[in-house]
TrEMBL record:
Protein name: Murein hydrolase transporter LrgA
Keyword terms, alphabetized: Cell membrane, Membrane, Transmembrane, Transmembrane helix
Membrane-spanning parts: 31-50, 62-82, 88-114
Locations listed in the record: Cell membrane
Source organism per UniProt: Bradyrhizobium manausense
Length: 127
């Protein structure tokens, strides 16, 4: 499990280094997760080509361990919020309004997308 956790953290480190080095407008951990996804897909493809059994350990076990304790990963975010309470106090109303508006826009876009896909599927079913 230690090697798998090291692989996850190494992918995150590589992603962070590439983003900072190239000045990409993307979070480093996101690029690291994409790298980890590519590595896992390549591992699965090579296992299928070699007709070997896929072992269900390694990164999967480490990730399940991380997910089991996911709430601990929110502690740094909560500390960051507490450190910026003065900003929340001065801009709290604007933040709440923007969050509410973004939720409404997200719901509207979701409903419109669902209706469009539903209409397209209904047209496809009718000969």
């Amino acid at each position: 499990m230690l090697a798998s956790l090291s692989l996850i953290l190494l992918c995150q480190l590589i992603g962070e280094a590439v983003v900072r080095g190239l000045g990409l407008p993307l979070p480093g951990p996101v690029l690291g997760l994409l790298l980890l996804l590519i590595l896992l897909l390549a591992r699965d493809r090579f296992a299928l080509l070699a007709r070997g059994p896929l072992r269900n350990d390694g990164v999967e076990t480490a990730s399940k361990g991380l997910l089991a304790h996911l709430s601990l990963l929110f502690v740094p975010a909560a500390v960051g919020v507490v450190q910026k309470l003065d900003l929340l106090a001065s801009h709290g109303v604007a933040i709440i309004l923007i969050l509410a508006a973004s939720v409404v826009v997200t719901l509207l876009v979701t409903v419109l997308t669902f209706r469009l896909v539903s209409r397209l599927l209904r047209q496809q079913d009718v000969p």
